[in-house]
Amino acid sequence: MTAARHVLTPTVAIVGAGPAGLTAAATLARRLGGDVLVLDREQAAGGIPRHSDHTGYGLRDLHRVMTGPTYAQHLAAEATAAGATIRTRATVTGWSGTRSLEVTSPQGLFRVEPRAIVLATGARERPRPARFIPGTRPSGIYTTGHLQNLVHLQHRSVGNRAVVVGAEPVSWSAVLTLRKAGCRTVLMTTGHASPESYAAFHLPGRLLLRVPVATRTRVTRIIGQRRLEAVEIEDLATGRRRTVACDTLILTGDWIPDHEVARTAGLDMDPATRGPLVDTALRTSRPGVFAAGNLLHAVDTADIAALGGRHAAHQVLAWLDGESTPQPAVPIIADAPFRWVAPGLLRVGAPAPPRHRLLLWSDELVRLPRVTVHQNGRELTRRTLPWPASPGRVFRVPWSMLSTVDHEGGPVHLGIART
């Protein structure tokens, strides 16, 4: 016979102790007298910021700027001070009911049966095997997260000459980490026609850090036996290839949601975002189960993820107060050049999404986008937005653009007018 597992019954369980999960925990614990349990598989709470040892965190949610580790510690301390319990090295391995989690930890196996669950497991960068880069398999190849863990948490060195794949904000974070480790970035490469990051990142990076950025290029081969020796770079416009000597390769960006827990629950998943499909209240397809942060849309900044966690917390409180059954939903669909939109469902009576914004991802640069909203073959709204739609970063559309949508009509399409 299998021994009965120890059962915990908090009011709310949160899976993931990154910015979204910790902010949701602090918000909920203040209202629920601390009856909130946070589970995280890592050894310490804080998520990705805890090993991003540079400034820029906390601007939108805390209205101050701090380093990643300080930000992570602050969020964990706030959740604990509010009365939430944080259990690290606790991995959710499965579900045994609608809102029943099976958990493995060094202290043994246990079950968590809360009244509501918030999934906030975040996102991760694709490793080399998922990017299908040909060549040998030498050492010296890292994602940004692996690099920052090695340098900032384990205080280990890497190489002397690095190539960074990607030109997103996280790519410049990798450059700063390499610099701290004494490794010079000799090239940054991106397949797009212009760097994906904001000018505030790539202009100082080029001028002050002296990092050359090769646009419309890709890594076509990895060279080296035991240790990386070089990479082959292809110019996408001409097909010409050249070899760049390096002993370190950093694969940045190309994020995917950390969605295993959501998938094992059998939640409806969005094939475009690859995260759980949610409405503007961040409700999943399972009653009482919510999702927040970069699990929904890989990937946005830590402070935006935190604000998403706060939004989810307020919706959880409404659920606990006996909120009525949600109305049928109208799908929101991203048309080219957009790849995805989040949230992906619109319901009658649902609140506005976090920060009153819809989040989209564009596969091409449109400097002055004329965003359109269509439903049932009819254009409802067209508005020119004064910020670009650019690959590599989230594009935000005001929620007010959907004010005339028919909640009993067909799918709502968001796109960009070409004429």
Low-confidence stretches: none
Q: For the terminal residues, how far apart are their CA atoms?
A: 69 Å
Number of strands: 27
Question: Can you identify the CATH superfamily of the largest domain?
Answer: FAD/NAD(P)-binding domain
Oligomer: single chain
What's the CATH architecture of the largest domain?
A: 3-Layer(bba) Sandwich
**What fold name goes in the CATH topology slot of the largest domain?**
FAD/NAD(P)-binding domain
Sheet with most strands: strand arrangement: 4-3-2-8-19
Specify the biggest β-sheet. Answer: 5 strands, parallel
- Our estimate of the beta-strand percent is 25-35%
Mean pLDDT across the residues is 93
Number of domains: 3
Q: How many H/I helices?
A: 9
CATH class of the largest domain equals Alpha Beta
* Coarse morphology: globular
Structural class: alpha/beta
Question: Keywords for this structure?
Answer:
3 domains, alpha/beta, FAD/NAD(P)-binding domain, 9 helices, five-stranded parallel β-sheet, 27 strands, 22% helix, 419 residues
Explain how this protein is built.
The structure is a single chain. The protein folds into 3 domains: 6-124 and 256-326, FAD/NAD(P)-binding domain; 127-253, FAD/NAD(P)-binding domain; 329-419, no CATH class. Helix 1 runs parallel beside helix 3 (68-81), helix 1 (19-32) packs parallel to helix 9 and helix 5 packs parallel to helix 6 (169-180). It is of the alpha/beta class and 419 residues long. The protein contains 9 helices and 27 strands. It is globular and about 60 Å long. The chain has helices spanning 19-32, 59-62, 68-81, 128-131, 144-153, 169-180, 199-207, 260-264, 302-320, and strands spanning 6-8, 12-15, 36-39, 85-87, 91-97, 100-105, 108-112, 116-119, 123-125, 141-143, 161-165, 184-189, 213-214, 217-224, 228-235, 241-245, 248-251, 255-257, 289-291, 329-334, 338-342, 345-347, 357-362, 370-375, 378-384, 394-398, 412-416. The model has no long low-confidence stretch (mean pLDDT 93). The strands form 7 sheets. Strands 4-3-2-8-19 form a 5-stranded parallel sheet, with helices on one face. Strands 10-17-11-12-13 form a 5-stranded parallel sheet. The chain has a 5-stranded mixed sheet with strand order 22-20-27-24-25, with no helix packed on it. 22% of the residues lie in helices and 31% in strands. The longest helix has 19 residues, at 302-320.
